[in-house]
Batch of 2 targets.
Target 1
Amino acid sequence: MAKLFRAVIMGPPGSGKGTISERIAQRFGLTRLSSGDFIRENIAANTDAGVLAKTYIERGLLVPDHVMTRLLLPRLEEMTRHSWLMDGFPRTLAQAEALNSTCDLDLVISLNIPYETLKERLSDRWIHPASGRVYNMGFNPPHVQGRDDISGEPLIQQDDDKPEALVARLRHYKDVAKPIIDLYKSKGILHTFSGTETDRIWPYINSLLSTKIPSTSQTDTQCIPMP
Ligand SMILES: Nc1ccn([C@@H]2O[C@H](COP(=O)(O)OP(=O)(O)OP(=O)(O)O)[C@@H](O)[C@H]2O)c(=O)n1
Ligand SMILES: Nc1nc2c(ncn2[C@@H]2O[C@H](COP(=O)(O)OP(=O)(O)O)[C@@H](O)[C@H]2O)c(=O)[nH]1
């Protein structure tokens, strides 16, 4: 059986994690796992972890590590026979360590995008809150202005995406991401991509993954269930 491939994509808010992971999932047939989507699904389904997570998100806080790991690790254990790409997790060193003890990552993509670019993109980002689908009025506009392509429901702009919130979010990202990036660098699996346009970064990611994904197709690996 082909060896499985597990990757994580990291980057500050607006760096293109969602956009690029969609492309990777389509091009390479990996399952895209988004921690934001998991949280939204759990909130919609009223699970215990979802109810708990909602109390933090409503206050604009990050969901604590133990809640995030409780949400995500069982989902990863269901994925033992799939290749996947994770977006939005780990977001702290503790989450990275929990992931580490669950499975071996093959590769980490880190996006390094200038502040001005992030600010412009986020000021133009519109989302469909129920699904997490993301639009940008210049880059990937919806078919009908202000409406989600699939459901036709209204799109919103998140308060968090306003320029005044961005500085604090970015500072927070830099602080918490640094030890995670150092950890992945020390494991030799970190690949950093810098630039201002997704379409210019994409060919580099595409060619890196084209070399990594087929060359790993030898044996099977599994995520080990957490005790
Ligand atoms: N590991 C994670 C992932 C998500 N969240 C919470 O879930 C929300 C939605 O996550 P996501 O869809 O990843 O969106 P953003 O945080 O807005 O991420 P970005 O701007 O980077 O796309 C976050 O704001 C945060 O409150 C969290 O606490 N911890
Ligand atoms: N103008 C422009 N917008 C982009 C580009 N790449 C992504 N976007 C948009 O920028 C916003 C942030 O991208 P997203 O994938 O949500 O980033 P994430 O927060 O890291 O997941 C979204 O509205 C995207 O549609 C780009 O190259 N140029």
Target 2
Amino acid sequence: MQTISPSPNPTLSLKSLFSDHKPLIRARPYSSNRALKRVVVQCVYRRDSSGGVGSNRADWQSSCAILASKVVSQQQDTEKTGNADITAVNGHKTLDLVPIDSLPKPLTITDLSPAPMHGAQLRVAYQGVPGAYSEAAAGKAYPNCDAIPCDQFEVAFQAVELWIADRAVLPVENSLGGSIHRNYDLLLRHRLHIVGEVQLPVHHCLLALPGVRKEYLTRVISHPQALSQCELTITKLGLNVAREAVDDTAGAAEFIANNNLRDTAAIASARAADLYGLQILADGIQDDSSNVTRFVMLAREPIIPRTDRPFKTSIVFAHDKGTSVLFKVLSAFAFRNISLTKIESRPHRNSPIRLVDDANVGTAKHFEYMFYVDFEASMAESRAQNALAEVQEFTSFLRVLGSYPMDMTPWCPSRGD
Ligand SMILES: O=C(O)C(=O)C[C@]1(C(=O)O)C=C[C@@H](O)C=C1
């Protein structure tokens, strides 16, 4: 698969993104392969003297499962929740985050610097270019935010770690295309906390240069998730086209416009059509009308878990004796009536294969996994604390990725459904 970088600009200065900020000094090398530290969860959710779970920030932070490598940083609660300049973007209410004539270029790895910058608005990193669904998700999660495009998921993580952004909003799964594996791997490699989730109805369009007809097309380009979410419809439309993956949906639209490609269409949002001057050849081409992508919000600090509204908690665990632990772990939740909303496994990159020698039979080679589980409970609830204390007994590695409010916004199918 060919990968087209939507906006190559290795020398970009962040000054162009934040005109009121000082120019950045050059990036310092960033080490992304920090050793994973085993986490002790038992001592994590301490009770206070009254028997309840500590409810202030200091309690929660001191008991957070990933204290071991936490960056000392200052919480910035600068979110604004007032009504901003809301417009319909791709059928969803979201912010018109950037003026069309001055689109910011995505951050690249060379733009990253540890220098903190201070502005009035919450700075939210997302992967892609303006018009990407991730930008709309950032606007839904943080109305009024200053959305910062990044060329890679990893850059969005680092932008938060280095104080260039206050939050990152990243996709983790789609109802049709499944998990975005890269972000599961990055959640483990980095030390950010999940502080929220948003679910965004995704309404895809087929975009081409003005005057181009479907019959002229020889290829369709888009983010791999978008290609997979529209696979059946592309075939039904009778398009005899090659599919090519690019970094993000809006980047595909921008690429067509910048290169004046008359044989190529993009799968992207209606907003991307507006931003890059393309026409909509077909509207609502996702294979299922209720196509939804779930994004998580990431921050340097965890939020204090509460019990006055529905919370979800995300964990990741592994066991050095293999997958046999899975049943025991799941039963720790089942016995406490805690529903799981998601389970995902990824290769255990530190020890991907376990050899089991049996003199009579030979050597079995088992693959090893990291298991990611989301469950419907807050870490402020004793049943969740008890479940995790039990899980910790069965596992050799356990980390709480975050305990955060569930997205309970009313169901709102994408435009045209
Ligand atoms: O390419 C974009 O527009 C994105 O925001 C990325 C992304 C993804 O990674 O799944 C987000 C939502 C849609 O499911 C398709 C693509």
